[in-house]
Amino acid sequence: MIIGIPVYDDVDILDVTGPFEMFRWAGLDVELVAKKPGLIKFRRGFKFEVTKGFADVADYDVLWVPGGEPQALADVINDPGRTFLDFLIDKSSSAKYVASVCEGAMLLAAAGLLDGYVATTHWAFVACLIQRFPKVIPAPGFPRFHLDRNRLTGGGVSSGLDEALKLIELLCGTEKAQEVQQNTQYYPAPPVTSEISLSGFCPLPELTIPPPRAIAGRPR
After folding, report:
1. Of 7, 102, 109, 114, which Cα lies nearest the Cα of 52?
2. Which residues of the chain have a pLDDT value below 70?
3. Helical H runs in the chain?
4. Per-residue burial over 41-54, b = 16 or more CB atoms within 10 Å of its CB, e = otherwise
5. CATH code reported for the domain at 2-183
6. First-last CA distance in the chain
7. Nearest residue to 1 (alpha-carbon basis) of 61, 42, 46, 53
8. At what angle do helices 159-172 and 174-183 cross, to 10 degrees?
9. Which helix (H) or strand (E) segment is 139 a member of?
10. Using CA atoms, how far apart are residues 50 and 165, in angstroms rounded to an integer?
11. pLDDT number for residue 213
């Protein structure tokens, strides 16, 4: 069973590495993939190497889409060649689960993969779902994750850890998820508390999503 994580420059570090850690403790194979193999820069500058490009990979059992810097998301979405969006569409067609964490929901939404689904995202980007992607149904409140059929979406950044445990439970059972929780000592008890509320401002720059190319038999 392979979990594919497509990445791009200025992707959020914890959206990738936190779930990666959880998945590996569960014994699941994880594959990082980018438009082209090479060095990818995490948001805030840390670099890592990706050895596989979009053209080099087969189907995934799970597609996990991380969030990132707003301009990076807009650049991916506005790409005239639709390279990233079409990759998501193609790989989602055979995946058992299609997941996003944080602003990664913007990428799934731009690809049309959340149309008609209830989904969540980082609290500051809920307004983007409402304003830019009206076919997506925002989950009530600010849940850490939300499952609608085979779409699993997560809230902001650290929510990916909870979401990853949920995916492990779905794939491997509750006992395995509990084992991973214990091995990673994931029993969060933050030293502070605060409240979040819905913002009417969407942080995404202007989007000009290119229309899908006509490809016979490609699922939407």
Report:
1. 7
2. 214-220
3. 13-25, 70-78, 83-92, 104-110, 126-132, 159-172, 174-183
4. ebbeeeeeebeeeb
5. 3.40.50.880
6. 24
7. 61
8. 140
9. none
10. 24
11. 75
In degrees and rounded to multiples of 5, residue 32 shows phi and psi of: -85, 135
What digits encode the pLDDT tens for the residues 39-92? 999 998 899 999 999 999 999 999 999 999 999 999 999 999 999 999 999 999
**Contact status, residue 62 vs residue 29, Cβ threshold 8 Å:** no
DSSP designation for 111: T
What is the dihedral angle through the alpha carbons of 188, 190, 191, 193, rounded to the nearest 10 degrees? -140
Q: Which residue has the tokens 């497509």?
A: 6
Give which of 1, 212, 216 is closest to 94, Cα–Cα. Answer: 1
| CB-CB contact of 154 with 102 (8 Å) | yes
pLDDT at 151: 98
pTM over 0.85: yes
**Could you tell me if 3 and 60 are in contact, meaning their C-beta atoms sit under 8 angstroms apart?**
yes
Which amino acids are annotated catalytic? 102
User: What residue ranges do the domains of the chain occupy?
Assistant: 2-183
Q: Which two tokens stand for residue 167?
A: 């995916």
CB neighbour class for 57 (10 Å; exposed up to 12, middle 13-18, buried from 19): middle
pLDDT value of residue 215:
52
